[in-house]
């Protein structure tokens, strides 16, 4: 069969959700083409393995040198496997504040505010609380009504490392909100679920939740280990472009084949590779395409613009007096590791049944920076183009879109209803923090000498100095927390970047020298944003690419303004909504 109703590019997080929903109608045929393989490894399925990167199931793509991070290049973390990011991620399951999604509606996207999206969050997931004993012992609070009865299983496991009691409750007296597990009110400090199926104590992914249970559907086909090379367009007599299918090549083969879509080609290749594929197929900024020798079919400057990610500072503290059964000991104490692993295999309990982090702090700027009003004034007084990639000076729509985003961010920076900073609570001295509301904007462009090779990913981290101001304030705040009497029993000593870096400049310099500052929290997004065309959008609020027919995007590329959240819960909700939009227009 070469013609399907729908051809979906990418069988990652969003691709498999939409494949499932569209193939619910047995009369509709769906083809999913995924570059990665069907991988059944325990590196992914066992929650306790989620601490490190599952490199075998990821692309080996590195960014362009980041000027303000000492011209270092960084791994661009993207899953290359059936299940995509959901298969390799850190399993944190949380959402942004209501205001984060209302911002999408404010940017001109009808039907994308929090109240519109909430039903789709609920449709995608189901929550299992910890046992009563665990909840009591660790002081874990939760609200089950924040979740639905959907395919993706999320839970707070029964096993918790004992040090979580002290680490989590070290925040009890801090003057920030203390909501229950965070899905109803995601600003403050809370115990947060992981995408773990409690019944099996294994990772829940888009594959296990949305694909494996329906694999026998006759109208759904998955081609794994197969690369989509190009979108096929047809031009009619008046020059209108319609996406009619894709060219693809099984990996390891030289034989390219074609698959056609009667209704729609749906791009779900993720925040990095969807903009790449559009450009390779002739849709994107004219100068970028021409420089790479790609024939321009539709000029669309929004492709590869508005690229965003959270900026990370992976701090570390040397600590003492941890309980002997601690997370770090899984790597340092072979006997403890072995008994823990054996326990997991036998009873699916113990240290391997839990992910790396169960506590999250998402805080407003005023929670961690007493000088927040100055930051807001600085932001508002900036000449926007001084701190943006050159293309924004040449394109009034892109600039208008950014200025509108900046207004929204300035408002969020002034209020307490949306988070700007994040601190991950782990039961060890490793302390990841993130600036969740970057003003700098990156680009994704083509490799001019070989456009089909990996794209050029440029984050432009700290191009806007406000991003560094926020990071400096958050770093100081995190240091102060580690120095508080609540954590004194651990005698924490900062080892990365290190106490020798104290001034504002030194905090950034130290982060670069010690490699703790990173341009990404594994959340590349925004490179084909959903916004009106006069705000530099790439897809409409119906997720259709501007200027061509029958082509939609449903993955992290469409996020117009990155929410303060790890992205997977949002991606499941976007995909559920996308499926409804696509069904409706059929
Ligand atoms: C290491 C890591 C840790 C993370 N940690 C967390 C976390 O703890 N919590 C959280 O909420 N989020 C986390 N995330 C982010 C989250 O998982 C992603 O935002 C989400 O999975 C993105 O979904 P997507 O559908 O947009 O893209 P993906 O899930 O990446 O899917 C895209 C798919 O398209 C395929 N593809 C790309 N190009 C082609 C092509 N040309 N032909 C065929 N197939 C193609 C890819 O192989 C991939 O499978 C993490 C991500 C990573 C990578």
What does this structure look like?
Keywords: FAD, Flavoprotein, Signal. With 586 residues, this protein is α/β, with parallel strands linked by helices. A hairpin with a 5-residue loop joins strand 9 and strand 10. Helix 1 (13-22) packs parallel to helix 19 (568-585), helix 5 (114-124) packs across helix 19 and helix 14 packs antiparallel against helix 16. The model has no long low-confidence stretch (mean pLDDT 97). The structure holds flavin-adenine dinucleotide (FAD). Flavin-adenine dinucleotide is lined by residues 9-14, 33-36, 53, 77-81, 84-86, 88-92, 227-228, 268-271, 273, 277, 522-523, 555-556, 566-569, 571.
Q: Give the amount of beta strand, in percent.
A: 15-25%
Percentage of residues assigned to helices: 25-40%
Number of strands: 23
> What is the residue-mean pLDDT, rounded to a whole number?
97
Shape summary: globular
What small molecules accompany the polymer chains? flavin-adenine dinucleotide
The helix/strand class is alpha/beta
Which helices and strands occur, and which strands form pairs?
Blueprint: E1 3-9, H1 13-22, E2 30-33, H2 42-45, H3 85-88, H4 98-106, H5 114-124, E3 125-128, H6 132-138, E4 152-155, H7 163-169, E5 188-191, E6 196-197, E7 202-203, H8 206-211, E8 220-223, E9 226-235, E10 241-250, E11 257-267, H9 270-280, E12 283-284, H10 286-291, E13 298-299, E14 311-318, H11 329-332, H12 334-347, E15 359-363, H13 365-368, H14 372-381, H15 391-394, H16 396-414, E16 421-425, E17 430-435, E18 443-445, E19 456-458, H17 465-482, E20 493-496, H18 504-513, E21 517-518, E22 548-549, E23 551-553, H19 568-585
Parallel strand pairs: 1-2, 1-11, 2-8, 3-4, 10-22, 11-23, 12-13
Antiparallel strand pairs: 5-15, 6-7, 9-10, 10-11, 14-17, 14-20, 14-21, 15-16, 16-17, 18-19
Helix pairs in contact: 1-19, 5-19, 14-16
The structure holds flavin-adenine dinucleotide (FAD).
